[in-house]
């Protein structure tokens, strides 16, 4: 199998396209199937619909199943519509059950039932089982293609079993050991199996310290566990400890990407609209609730400024520093928000360390405020020649940054305590809240010292 680099990618693409244009089935199969499936996908998605039809003709459903698994959902849907029903049914039979379940989850009910009816009933049963689990749980993301062995087997018999079962398994680096009731009792690595004496009983060489996950465990917790132990896969068990599937590291990568995208969407108040392939209308529809809510928060900001109208009329120059106060408060709060959300997501913020984290952020805010106060004090005095104005602006920024860091750190902690995703404490929300508090501090200080201006 060849993995393309940039240097020979064009050469292979040219050979493949030439073979398709010349209707040279043999040359196409020899060249195309030599490539890594990921490179096959990269080439396939560039082809026209007419050319793709030749690919379906030249590749068997089993060959094409690997390409279909690597496509994005939108490309899978388009490709499925181009396939003959018999071809697609056989393709689904050759795919891993979890990949079929993921695809069917994006389809409508009637179409799902139609696809399942046309599939091999054994394969369809596994897909239905996966689809029966709640979304974003271990059961929903696990694969059924794994190798389990009996604790009473001999090492030589297991090696012989692998010769038959390995081609259909997603991974064989770990072999999971079950008892007569199909309950998980141990695990053995492929290396330990190969190096064990041929007549050794599995029970004597397996490890009984098995780290497993419940079928209803949240997928993010599953990903954290696999990352923590550096597993290539983790067994999934029922509440009765029956082995029912495995979650592999490639699933974990997808989960972490999905969760990171979701958190980014929450923090930026653009949940569901971070995909560049989403239409402008859909993106606007998904972003608008936050934008409208923040717009009303902006009215509160305007009201705060209006309450200090007399102060502004007395010293118009104070208005020049409003953007500075608001931007500094929002930026500092968003930084603390990122620290808190990341800590909660990675599990580094424990129950006993919350106070320490908040104190650290408050200390950071104090030091940032002090630095900004000194810099602003000197700058404003030199530019405007008014030390009292410099004192007001400098002390306001000091108080604002100190409070903004605490708000940015504590709001996601409170939301997490309420069993909600802390990422919903979005950057724009924290920014707006800190804008309002920053203005209140600024104008309160300016009003108190108005007689000295």
Task: Describe the structure in your own words.
The protein is built from 22 helices and six strands. With 453 residues, it is mostly helical. The chain folds into three domains: 6-134, MgtE N-terminal domain-like (MgtE N-terminal fold); 148-258, CBS-domain (Roll), CATH 3.10.580; 280-452, Orthogonal Bundle (Tetracycline Repressor, domain 2), CATH 1.10.357. Helix 15 (219-229) crosses helix 16 and helix 19 packs across helix 22 (427-448). The longest helix is centred in the C-terminal third of the chain and has 31 residues, at 354-384. The radius of gyration is 30 Å and the shape is elongated.
What topology does this entry show?
Elements: H1 6-21, H2 25-32, H3 37-44, H4 49-58, H5 61-70, H6 73-82, H7 85-94, H8 97-104, H9 109-118, H10 121-131, H11 138-141, E1 148-150, H12 155-165, E2 174-178, E3 184-189, H13 190-195, H14 202-205, E4 213-214, H15 219-229, E5 233-237, E6 243-248, H16 249-267, H17 280-307, H18 309-314, H19 322-346, H20 354-384, H21 387-417, H22 427-448
Parallel strand pairs: 1-2, 4-5
Antiparallel strand pairs: 2-3, 5-6
Provide tags for this entry.
453 residues; mainly alpha; MgtE N-terminal fold; CBS-domain; three-stranded mixed β-sheet; 22 helices; 66% helix; elongated; magnesium; transmembrane helix; Magnesium transporter MgtE; transport; membrane
Summarize the biggest pleated sheet: 3 strands, mixed
Mean pLDDT over the residues = 86
Q: Structural class, from helix and strand content? A: mainly alpha
Integer-rounded radius of gyration: 30 Å
What would you give as the CATH superfamily of the largest domain? SLC41 divalent cation transporters, integral membrane domain
| CA-based shape | elongated
Q: Provide the CATH topology of the largest domain.
A: Tetracycline Repressor, domain 2
Helix content: 55-70%
Spatial strand order of the main sheet: 1-2-3
The ordered string of helix (H) and strand (E) elements is: HHHHHHHHHHHEHEEHHEHEEHHHHHHH
What's the helix count? 22
Q: How many distinct beta strands?
A: 6
Name of the CATH first level of the largest domain? Mainly Alpha
Organism: Halalkalibacter okhensis
Keywords: CBS domain, Cell membrane, Magnesium, Membrane, Metal-binding, Transmembrane, Transmembrane helix, Transport
Protein name: Magnesium transporter MgtE
Pfam family, one: MgtE_N
